[in-house]
Amino acid sequence: MNKPEVEFQAGPPPAELVVKDLVEGDGVEAVADGVVEVHYVGVDYETGEEFDSSWNRGETVRFPLRRLVKGWQEGIPGMKAGGRRQLTVPPELAYGPAGGGHRLSGKTLVFVIDLIDAS
């Protein structure tokens, strides 16, 4: 797969996590306490500006799901390798409310995640 284009979403940001499968995978399934290898793009919901992308670094990333933001912990389990999923993550499940000390605090974030592998 190639780097995804994240579609701009009109209207107010959702108050809860929104999970949307863009491509159904048919490989191993990600589990809540597992490790995932992914390619991803993250954009700010309101501006559509990209703030991070493993694609730009030219390599996938691998980490335990429990070490990621809550939106990923809740939105990735059940996804299968080979799949592409979009997560729209409210601040409470990302980097917390505005003033939380992270540059993305208070922001609703949109991630498009390609699951390469899970264990």
Description:
The protein has one domain: Chitinase A, domain 3, CATH 3.10.50. Helix content is 8%, strand content 34%. The chain contains two helices and six strands. Strands 1, 2, 3, 4, 5 and 6 form a six-stranded antiparallel β-sheet that branches. A hairpin with a 5-residue loop joins β2 and β3. The radius of gyration is 13 Å and the shape is globular. The two termini are 21 Å apart. Keywords: Isomerase, Rotamase. GO terms for molecular function: peptidyl-prolyl cis-trans isomerase activity. Belongs to the FKBP-type PPIase family.
Compact overview of the structure:
It is an enzyme of class 5 (isomerase). It comes from Saccharopolyspora erythraea (strain ATCC 11635 / DSM 40517 / JCM 4748 / NBRC 13426 / NCIMB 8594 / NRRL 2338). The chain has 119 residues and is mainly beta.
Give the overall average pLDDT. 96
Second rung of CATH, namely the architecture: Roll
How many angstroms separate the termini? 21 Å
Anisotropy-based shape:
globular
CATH class: Alpha Beta
Order of helices and strands: EEEHEHEE
- What's the alpha carbon Rg, rounded to whole Å? 13 Å
Number of domains: 1
**β content, as a range?**
25-35%
Q: Give the helix proportion (percent range).
A: under 10%
What structural class do the secondary elements suggest?
A: mainly beta
Low-confidence stretches: none
The biggest sheet, with number of strands, parallel, antiparallel or mixed sense and barrel status, is: 6 strands, antiparallel
Q: At the third CATH level, what is the topology name?
A: Chitinase A, domain 3
Q: Please give the count of helices.
A: 2
- Count all strands and give the number: 6
